[in-house]
Design goal:
The complex is a heterodimer of chains A (297) and B (288). With 297 residues, chain A is an all-alpha fold. Chain A is globular and about 75 Å long. Chain A contains 13 helices and no strands. Chain B is mostly helical and 288 residues long. Chain B folds into 2 domains: 1-42, no CATH class; 51-286, MetI-like (MetI-like fold, Orthogonal Bundle). The chains are: A mainly alpha (297), B mainly alpha (288). At the A-B interface, helix 1, helix 2, helix 5, helix 6 and helix 10 of A face helix 1, helix 2, helix 5, helix 6 and helix 7 of B.
Amino acid sequence: MTATLEQMETTTQQSASPKPRRRSISKRVSPFTYVALTLMTFISVFPFYWMYVVASNGSEEISKIPPSLTPGGNFPNVVNTITQAVPFWHAILNTAIVSTVIALCNVFFSTLAGFALAKLRVPGKRGMLLFIIGTMMLPAQLGVIFMYMVMSWLNWINDFKALVVPAIVGAFGVFWMRQIIDSQLPNELLEAARIDGASVFRIYRSIVVPTVLPAAFVLGLFSFLGTWNDYLWPSLVLNDPERFTVQVAITQLNNSYTVDYAANMGAALLGTTPLLLLFIFVGRRLVAGVMEGAVKG
Amino acid sequence: MLFGAIPIVFTTALAFFNADFQTYYEFITNHQLSVLTNAFAGLDNFRELFKDSYFWLALRNTFSIWLISTVPQLIIAFGLASLLANARLRASTFWRTALMIPNITSVLAVAIVFQQLFGRDFGIFNVLLHYVGHKPIEWVAGTIPSHFAIATMINWRWLGYNSLIFLAAILAIPKELYESAALDGASRWQTVRYVTIPQMKNTITFMLVMGTIGGLGLFVEPLTYGGGFDGGANSQFLTMTLYLYKQAFMNQRLGYGAAIGVGITLVVMIISAINFMITRSIAGEESK
């Protein structure tokens, strides 16, 4: 298909202008392109390799010139150091649970609110939508003092509720789902369902959910990654080691004046590994989601 | 939704008082209004903020890091997107996916790696400089070098993501526009200037808005880069939001922290207005 287009293009060009110009978008790929992309891939992956190199060599091996550039055999010891300093596996479990709950809540509430804003007759709908876009424009940091005070009044400090409740729905998710539902769900289909006597929730379940599922999946992924990687808010509201999330646990390794690079790098790698494994399965969906969201939004 | 708006109104109100968490806690539990009236500070916090050299330093640092990270990042992302947009590129899914990997990594993990890579004595960058006979650069203690190091962390994490956004926008441009540009004998640069960029108006607006919010709200990177809430020994990479946290949570000065928050919002609004004018001018060129 692209080949035929290309041919058509060149033929029209040749007939239109005396000297053929090659300005079509699918010009031949120069070797430079592959060199540049390989370099970028190397830059993307190198820090993970380096985490393993430092963690498996120990800090002394790295603190010399030239530093060791290949992995050593010290990794089990470093893992031992980490797990003795903080309940690291427990933190991974905590993070996995909290991130999953938040991702599911986000998908549910964002699609529901997005559906209401796109297709239902809600008084003041337009105002609400503008309001949601408005909150996206403001720096989130502004709310942290207030949120912290609410959490301490509710006695939710050291409680996972302090992580989950403020995060169950976000402006970005609602806006995105609204855009998808608005553009992909024909009104006639909803009318037909209504005439057949389907309730609003039935319509949501049988028509809206299947339509938005691909985008909602990506939203859930982003929400999962965001929670997994969030550092500041959990570090403010959690101070019981049993409740730490991964990111908070990692920072606890730095209580003395000397920085143990090996332990830090090992913990950073262990904390990222679950996401890298997840990425192997969902990476392509994530890329498609980012690109789709870019055009729609 | 409530979680979005109430904090903003509340934070603005908070900026008119001088109190710590304990004071507010007493007010809530005992319902004594006198606790609040005693703490009322009027415009004091804003006056102090205006004269606070740390806030202006933080403003300068924020802008500096933001510029060093945004400008090269968007240019390189645009270049990468143009390379990826070629329909004849082999293994295009692989390259796209590889670019996305850094974005799933936490800022903290990124900071830990780059802190080591930028280490003064044994970090790779200084070791390489050593071999070319250059003396080590103070990647943490120096102002501009530390900004550069922090910007590198941001760039590493966001370059691929932004390339994909640009790529999506480039692929959405109708092919006919390029064909007619070619027929008109447009040079490669003219095609980019008069076809690609105006067609990407919405994407560029989106990136400017999101980039402004992210860039001016910057704080996790400098926080985790090793300076704690001070932003380095000489506050050389203290950013506005980092200063907000320092005052509100470390010094328990909620009112002053809130006033900093109001200051940040004002700066974001000014920059957003400038962004709006820039995108308006891009849109204007389209109609020429």
